[in-house]
Model the fold of this input.
Amino acid sequence: MKGNRLILLIASILLLTISSGLLFYKNLFLLEGPRSGGKVDFEELRYTDLQTNTTALMMRKNLSTESTVLTSEINRIKELMNIVTDVNKNSTELGASLKKIQTYFDKKIKNLEKFQVGLKDLKNSIESLNPTYNELTKNNLKFVVDKKDFYRECVIDALFYVASTSKENEIRLQDDKKILAQILGFATAPNPIILKYSHLIDKILLRGKELDVITDSLKNDSPINSEMIILGKYYKESLDSKAHDGEIFLTMVFGAIVLYLLCLVFIFKKLN
Done:
């Protein structure tokens, strides 16, 4: 009985010693950094970045203000960036890359939010143009240029401009704007309906140009491709290092189990 107790005591002390050693190794070498936010999928970040471009361009092309998908993509970029910026900046090159990536996405998100506001304003202006033209007609407010209804031609030119903001369509609408300014300037007191109509044309031109600047930037190649490669390389090396440490720890666990069993066999033989 006394021998069994001694075996149990020695085995327990041995097990406790081995377990403590393994835990000490794990805590010393395998601990995650204090700001580790989780797994970063850089391919997803790159893909989502490209997907926001496609979504925004399709929205502009179709004059669609349904922004659920775009908002979801923006939110996903924010989530991924929160993780990315938590990585340990252990080199000057990595720190500079992270800073450039953060600046790029901050600017892009701001532009996309501005894009959504501008697109809604552009669509509302286009939708208000025809009803305002009907108001002009009801109030017998007409103006003829080259034997054509000028106000009706403005509607057509605006629709062409929104469908394709080419230089030719822009010049045509700019000319309409100048004529509207002359009509308002000739009047002793500007007619409120014509003034409203003129403001709509101004807004369509303004928003069209703003959206063009944003969408043109989305068509260009991403300026952070090299930074994403650096970040992806760092992350891969970090994962490989952790995987190697994990393999060492697993080997140590198996070794500890074998050592523990051998020690038990040795103790049993000595006591018997």
Q: What stands out?
A: Strands lie at 144-145, 148-149. The mean pLDDT is 80.
